[in-house]
Amino acid sequence: MDEALWALGRGTGVIGLALFSLALVLGITVRSGRSAAGLPKFGVARLHRDVALLAMVFIGIHILSLFFDSYAQLQLVDLAVPFLAAYQPFWLGLGTLAADLTLAVVVTALLRHRIGARAFRAVHWATYLLWPLSVAHGIGAGTDAAEPWFLIVVGVCCAAVLGAVAWRVTARFRRPQPVTPARIKTAATRRLASSEVSS
Question: Residues of the signal sequence (predicted)?
Answer without folding.
Answer: none
